[in-house]
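Hi V.,

Quick status before I head out on leave. The structure for the redesign project is tokenized and pasted below; the design run finished overnight.
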């Protein structure tokens, strides 16, 4: 489907939903200067094209540790291994890259036992897995609960990971809300009340608490290819420690970047970028990455297939 089928109203609607995924149609209509009926019709059309609004937990606010796994596999098995990882409930996204022999997988863990079961037992014993490296995400500069789309240019500046505080305790109602909002972030209060057995006013109080405490975020998931962006690329950077924060915060302001985090390992900063063409990727590396201080080297790995993305993970 050609990107020109999305007009200015469609793209502005995507932008407003990115700012608040649960914004009511009445407010969206006022901001767009169109009727509420027009907003509802445009929203339904975008949904039919694959738009999802997803409620997601903020990992560090809930006492979860986020990991990025980098696996190299034999070419004949990478796809099957990626699909198997995607079926696991503890993985949040899985992508296949680098000629079909390398894949990336993000997961959240609460305990060392959860981490070790996968990293020390399951994966090393998987046939056709050649190497496994695990990178702990120390600080997420952008992308903790968001995804990229081409109308992100006017979004507020990201603030990075939450400061170190005690994990927010969750009750059974909170956990049901996370599960339902992972399927539909715009589920109505009545629908959420039916699922939780709570009144709409009680559900609203729970939602307000989770959002005010920084534990729940809403993401807009829309295929970048429908907006003409056909080259998603993983960037692995080795940055001098003194400049790690500076570079990470700079990447978080770039509209091309969907995700950026400081991680453990030889490459201490990883990012996901979305571009229209290889030439745009080159220009980005030349004009935006090149002038940043302290970058010693950079590795790029174009994504071949997104196997799993924007999935609720709450152990």
């Amino acid at each position: 489907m050609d990107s020109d089928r999305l007009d200015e109203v469609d793209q502005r609607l995507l932008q407003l939903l990115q700012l608040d995924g649960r914004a009511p149609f009445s407010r969206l209509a006022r901001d767009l200067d169109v009727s509420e009926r027009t907003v509802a019709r445009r929203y339904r059309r975008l949904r039919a094209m694959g738009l999802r609004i997803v409620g997601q937990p903020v990992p560090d606010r809930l006492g979860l540790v986020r990991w990025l796994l980098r696996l190299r596999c034999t070419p004949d098995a990478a796809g099957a291994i990626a699909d198997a990882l995607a079926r696991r409930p503890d993985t949040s996204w899985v992508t296949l890259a680098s000629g079909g022999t390398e894949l990336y997988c993000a997961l959240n863990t609460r305990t060392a036992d959860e981490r070790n079961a996968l990293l020390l037992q399951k994966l090393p014993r998987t046939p056709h897995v050649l190497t496994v490296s695990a990178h702990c995400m120390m600080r997420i500069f952008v992308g903790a609960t968001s995804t990229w789309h081409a109308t992100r240019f006017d979004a507020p500046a990201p603030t990075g990971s939450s400061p170190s505080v005690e994990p927010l305790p969750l009750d059974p109602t909170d956990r049901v809300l996370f599960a339902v909002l992972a399927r539909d972030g715009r589920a109505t209060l009545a629908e959420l009340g039916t699922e939780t057995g709570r009144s709409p006013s009680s559900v609203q109080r729970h939602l307000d608490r989770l959002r005010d405490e920084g534990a729940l975020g809403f993401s807009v998931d829309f295929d970048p290819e429908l907006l003409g962006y056909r080259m998603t690329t993983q960037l692995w950077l080795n940055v001098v420690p003194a400049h790690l924060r500076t570079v990470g915060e700079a990447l978080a302001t770039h509209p091309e970047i969907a995700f950026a985090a400081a991680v453990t390992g030889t490459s201490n900063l990883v990012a996901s970028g979305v571009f229209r063409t290889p030439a745009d990727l080159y220009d980005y590396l030349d004009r935006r990455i090149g002038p940043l201080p302290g970058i010693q080297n950079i590795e790029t790995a174009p994504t071949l297939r997104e196997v799993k993305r924007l999935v609720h993970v709450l152990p």
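Above is the designed sequence. The first helix runs from residue 8 to 19.

G. will cover questions while I'm gone.

Best,
W.
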